[in-house]
């Protein structure tokens, strides 16, 4: 057993250049992952026209990738608790990139739907795994801030994709312009695979499975790059030994409360977050706007995604994460209804921008939060399983929201979204634990020791 323990030493080390390189590489992978997530939504009206898809089948096109994400999020993240974070990470990248590339050459709607489902196996698994990986790599005192910076790089994908779609859908170079968006979305694996040697395995995971020597080697490399400043040698005190815990730990009294809270949250957050991002072109089309105009307004609205993510950086370590989520959800409910009500171009773009800005303060808050509330041994499985519920709901969401949109209009649709956000606020506010500024071991392993005794997992 390493003494003092790896996790406790990780918590107290300063931020190094290696930490920052890891953040950039993970951010690049998430950039392309998010680019892929929004492809069908951004191109919804374009693909409907290209393949002559009737309104009754639009929901199937939009939901296919999300149903794949549901399966992949459970499978790949459970695998990550057994084979390691890095191996699962690279497998996920390869899966979604290959199938997204093949989807670019779809001859018909059926082919596209099938390969969007297959790409979704990887797309849905990457984000929760990155939440887990980043939370285990970064020191406790600035974990939230550096994760928010990483997500800001990710969310640059949405306006980039919006403006690329606006520019490419009317072009034809060797093949239809929309197909090039799928090709671009598949490039993430090539870039990240070329840099993967920089990514270490999670030292916390290595320690949790008894591979202490490997964990020590990675920790030593971090320390080699640490700034040589007084205080870097701060002794570790009150360390909590990592325990091998069974999966049913998720349903002990303390963790059952967290698990129920997160499952309810993931079911509801889909309406607010993906309900806007994937359906906004169709919402704008329902207001009588052309495809080109809809994509322009959507692209301007999407600028709020990276700006909202950037705005979260200074607050994630100052305000309790759960209250960041609750406050941002309230703003999404308000701006969503205002977006649905207005028909003025300036107000459409303004409320769309404010909605996406709020939604990424919301997103960063909860992605950091969900990776902090489970012990290392089952963290990826727990987070991936919970996140899979949001992918399942994202697959079902078009079948719920599109009929409301077509029958009653955008205001009614966003009223449904607002209702989901209110329930979410109650759920997180009442059941969510406090995590800001605390080590993962203090939030988790210490709770297990208190509940089940010091010999659990021995």
TrEMBL record:
<keyword id="KW-0812">Transmembrane</keyword>
<dbReference type="GO" id="GO:0022857">
    <property type="term" value="F:transmembrane transporter activity"/>
</dbReference>
<dbReference type="InterPro" id="IPR005828">
    <property type="entry name" value="MFS_sugar_transport-like"/>
</dbReference>
<feature type="transmembrane region" description="Helical">
    <location>
        <begin position="347"/>
        <end position="369"/>
    </location>
</feature>
<feature type="transmembrane region" description="Helical">
    <location>
        <begin position="323"/>
        <end position="341"/>
    </location>
</feature>
<dbReference type="InterPro" id="IPR036259">
    <property type="entry name" value="MFS_trans_sf"/>
</dbReference>
<feature type="transmembrane region" description="Helical">
    <location>
        <begin position="295"/>
        <end position="316"/>
    </location>
</feature>
<dbReference type="InterPro" id="IPR020846">
    <property type="entry name" value="MFS_dom"/>
</dbReference>
<feature type="transmembrane region" description="Helical">
    <location>
        <begin position="177"/>
        <end position="195"/>
    </location>
</feature>
<feature type="domain" description="Major facilitator superfamily (MFS) profile">
    <location>
        <begin position="22"/>
        <end position="436"/>
    </location>
</feature>
<feature type="transmembrane region" description="Helical">
    <location>
        <begin position="111"/>
        <end position="134"/>
    </location>
</feature>
<protein>
    <submittedName>
        <fullName>Major facilitator superfamily MFS_1</fullName>
    </submittedName>
</protein>
<dbReference type="InterPro" id="IPR005829">
    <property type="entry name" value="Sugar_transporter_CS"/>
</dbReference>
<feature type="transmembrane region" description="Helical">
    <location>
        <begin position="87"/>
        <end position="105"/>
    </location>
</feature>
<feature type="transmembrane region" description="Helical">
    <location>
        <begin position="21"/>
        <end position="39"/>
    </location>
</feature>
<feature type="transmembrane region" description="Helical">
    <location>
        <begin position="411"/>
        <end position="431"/>
    </location>
</feature>
<keyword id="KW-0472">Membrane</keyword>
<feature type="transmembrane region" description="Helical">
    <location>
        <begin position="260"/>
        <end position="283"/>
    </location>
</feature>
<feature type="transmembrane region" description="Helical">
    <location>
        <begin position="146"/>
        <end position="165"/>
    </location>
</feature>
<dbReference type="Pfam" id="PF00083">
    <property type="entry name" value="Sugar_tr"/>
</dbReference>
<feature type="transmembrane region" description="Helical">
    <location>
        <begin position="59"/>
        <end position="80"/>
    </location>
</feature>
<dbReference type="GO" id="GO:0005886">
    <property type="term" value="C:plasma membrane"/>
</dbReference>
<keyword id="KW-0813">Transport</keyword>
<keyword id="KW-1133">Transmembrane helix</keyword>
<feature type="transmembrane region" description="Helical">
    <location>
        <begin position="381"/>
        <end position="405"/>
    </location>
</feature>
